[in-house]
Specification:
Layout lengths: L1 H31 L4 E13 L4 E6 L6 E2 L4 E5 L2 H19 L4 H27 L5 H52 L1 E3 L4 E6 L6 E2 L4 E17 L1 H4 L7 E7 L5 E17 L13 E10 L9 E6 L2
Antiparallel strand pairs: 1-8, 1-12, 2-4, 2-7, 3-6, 4-5, 6-8, 8-11, 9-10, 9-12, 10-11
Helix pairs in contact: 2-4, 3-4
Length: 309
């Protein structure tokens, strides 16, 4: 009697476990196919480089540091640029000091001209009274004419000198603006809000212009890069709202709202680490789906997308 009951209990248990296994298998099957495309999460990355050459005086940003746009990242030695600026400022002062004073330079000739005109008036009166000759009148008129031409020539020469000095000052001021721009670039600032992914230099290193300092990514706004078959393209469009799930492992999924922001116009072979709803498809189209990051999404994390029907 006991053996019969044990056999029945065993069969009942076996049946129950079998049913549970089938339910679990069915649930897994439904979950495995509950997506339209898969991909990985990515973000906009920027390589921040030094725009000037020099010694790195400070470099506080570390990998994992969260930076805000405009925040100071590193400081490059600007001593040489500062000295160049001071030299240019002195050159401007020296150039201005050598600018001729036109009225002062012309004063002697103008004074001489005034005396000659007084003499001209005297000789003219004498000539009218018959006390001076035509030759005397012609000589004084000729002397005044020569003197006036000398004054005009001198005035033009001085004006050219003033104009040339002004052009030199303007050229020096442009050079100062260039130096100011280099001085500004000695302070390296964050171009966007983001997280430091990689750091390529340290304080105390000698940098050359264009050498990378660090890599920064905007982790607040990430995107899922997924791949679709040509048949699926007929059901989507730019700006379309979709559902995105991030796989955190061990069946732990988080769902996010997403928006399609980019669709490739060229097909490519399906990447080896990507699956599609139709595994027979070899050629697929890449799409990017913008997702607002709640802090849990990481670069390279696996994700799935479901198009809203």
């Amino acid at each position: 009697m006991n053996k019969t009951v044990s056999a029945k209990s065993f069969k009942a248990s076996l049946g129950l476990w079998g049913a549970l296994f089938l339910l679990l298998l069915a649930a897994c099957s439904r979950n495995a196919g509950n997506y339209d495309a898969t991909g990985t999460f990515d973000a906009s990355e920027i390589i921040v480089s030094s725009e000037v050459a020099g010694l790195i005086l400070s470099f506080e940003a570390e990998e994992g540091t969260k930076l805000t746009k405009g925040a100071l990242i590193a400081t490059i030695d600007s001593t040489q640029y500062y000295l160049q600026k001071q030299q240019l400022l002195q050159n401007i002062e020296a150039t201005k000091a050598n600018v001729p004073a036109v009225p002062t330079q012309l004063a002697p000739l103008e004074k001489q001209l005034e005396k000659q005109k007084q003499e001209q008036r005297r000789i003219t009166n004498l000539y009218n009274d018959g006390a001076a000759t035509q030759q005397q009148l012609d000589d004084i008129n000729s002397a005044i004419s020569v003197l006036e031409r000398q004054i005009d020539a001198q005035r033009n020469s001085l004006r050219n000198s003033v104009s040339g000095a002004g052009a030199q000052v303007e050229a020096l001021q442009v050079q100062i603006e260039q130096i100011d721009d280099r001085l500004k670039r000695c302070n390296v600032v964050a171009p966007i809000d983001g997280i430091v992914l990689s750091k390529y230099a340290q304080a105390g290193e000698l940098m050359s212009a264009g050498k990378p300092l660090l890599k920064i990514a905007d982790m607040d706004n990430v995107h899922l890069k997924a791949y679709l078959t040509s048949l699926q393209l007929t059901n989507i469009k730019l700006g379309q709202e979709v559902k995105v799930r991030a796989d955190f492992g061990k069946g732990n999924y988080h769902e996010y709202d997403g928006k399609i922001t980019w669709i490739s116009d060229k097909s490519e072979f399906t990447p080896k680490n990507i699956t599609t709803s139709d595994d027979r498809a070899n050629m697929v189209y890449a799409v990017k789906i913008a997702v607002k990051n709640d802090g849990y999404l990481k670069l390279g994390m696996y994700g799935e997308v479901k198009f809203n029907q």
